[in-house]
Amino acid sequence: MRRPLLVALALVALLPLAAREAHAQKRPVSVEECAACHGPDGIARDSEVPNLAGQNERYLFNQIMAFHNGKRVHKEMRYMARSMSVEEMAALAAYYAALPPR
Ligand code: HEC
């Protein structure tokens, strides 16, 4: 029962991204890219990658921001986050926070 609601929430959260894609010059970041490591449901299959599902939204945002500005050092996450806008980071944080934790 909760799935359709969560999918709807996720779509709403990502709508601003879709709307901006038409104008953005830089390559937009999508959750599909995150899913490669963090899992399509925010639960990582690899034990060296953290789960994101159900994590605190503020915490997730702060971590993505820290990767973005280099305060938290990690090669892959820096690559993913370096060109994200604040809106993209906020939408991704909201998306993963809304997913059910394991
Ligand atoms: C190539 C694999 C890979 C991809 C792709 C990837 N991540 Fe990560 N992510 C990691 C790893 C590994 C860590 C752990 C970093 C560390 O050890 O500091 C991490 C950490 C994080 C964290 C911090 C979690 C915590 O508990 O502190 C967040 C938030 C995050 N990633 C979000 C994302 C988002 C959003 C995307 C898509 C835009 C993404 N990641 C794409 C591998 C990846």
Helix run count = 5
Number of beta-strand segments: 0
What oligomeric state is this? Answer: single chain
Largest sheet: none
Poorly predicted residue ranges: none
Which ligands are bound? heme C
Describe the structure.
This protein is mainly alpha-helical and 102 residues long. The protein has a single domain, classed as Cytochrome c-like domain (Cytochrome Bc1 Complex, Chain D, domain 2), CATH 1.10.760. The chain has five helices and no strands. It has helices at 2-21, 31-38, 57-68, 75-81, 86-98. α1 (2-21) runs antiparallel to α5, α3 crosses α4 and α3 (57-68) runs antiparallel to α5. The mean pLDDT is 87. The site of heme C has 18 residues, from α2, α3 and α4. The site of heme C (HEC) has 18 residues, from α2, α3 and α4.
Briefly say what this structure is:
This protein is mainly alpha-helical and 102 residues long.
Task: Lay out the secondary structure.
Blueprint: H1 2-21, H2 31-38, H3 57-68, H4 75-81, H5 86-98
Helix pairs in contact: 1-5, 3-4, 3-5
This protein binds heme C.
Heme C is lined by residues 29, 33-34, 36-38, 48-50, 52, 60, 63-64, 74, 76-77, 80, 92.
